[in-house]
Design a protein that fits this description.
Helix content is 69%, strand content 3%. It is built from 6 helices and 2 strands; from the N terminus they run H-H-H-H-H-E-E-H. The longest helix is centred in the middle third of the chain and has 26 residues, at 53-78.
Length: 141
C-alpha cells in the first residue's frame, strides 16, 4: 500500500494525512477507503490508533459520524433514493449491526473468548509484520 514498507521503517501519517483520513472516515465509516484516500495503508493508521489516545478518540468520533452518515444514506434509499455507486447494501447493514451490538456492550470475540479490540489489533499487526518480513526475505533471496 502507498507509504508502507516494513514495520521498522514505516512512517506515521502527518497532520494533513490524519485530517484527510478522519474526514473520509467521518463520511463513510470505512477505514480502508479512508486510508486509501489519505494516501497510506490502513496499518499505519491502526498503529497510530494504538499509540495515540487523541487520535483514537478522533477516530472513534469520526467512525460514529460516518455510521450516522451511512444510516442517513440507507434511510434515504429506503425512501426511494438510489444508493451511491459502489455501496453494497448488505455490507453496510452488517457493519451497522456490528456497531449496534458493540454499542449494547457486546464484546469482540475470538474463538468464543472475549477479547479487547486493542489486543486483536496488536495481534493482527504482529502477524502482518511477520508476513512483511517473509516477503522481504523472499525478495532478497
Amino acid at each position: 500500500m502507498g507509504g508502507e514498507t516494513g514495520a521498522a521503517t514505516e512512517r506515521l501519517p502527518g497532520r494533513a494525512v490524519r485530517r484527510r483520513f478522519l474526514e473520509v472516515l467521518g463520511m463513510t465509516a470505512n477505514v480502508t477507503r479512508a486510508a486509501r484516500e489519505a494516501g497510506m495503508g490502513t496499518r499505519c493508521f491502526y498503529r497510530l490508533r494504538l499509540g495515540d489516545d487523541a487520535f483514537r478518540t478522533a477516530w472513534d468520533a469520526a467512525l460514529e459520524e460516518g455510521c450516522r452518515q451511512v444510516e442517513a444514506m440507507l434511510l434515504a434509499a429506503a425512501l426511494g433514493e438510489p444508493l451511491a455507486p459502489g455501496v453494497d447494501r448488505k455490507q453496510v447493514l452488517e457493519m451497522l449491526a456490528r456497531r449496534e451490538a458493540r454499542g449494547k456492550g457486546a464484546p469482540a470475540t475470538v474463538r468464543g473468548r472475549q477479547v479487547a479490540i486493542e489486543t486483536v489489533e496488536r495481534s493482527l499487526l504482529r502477524k502482518l509484520d511477520a508476513l512483511d518480513r517473509r516477503r522481504q526475505r523472499g525478495k532478497e533471496g
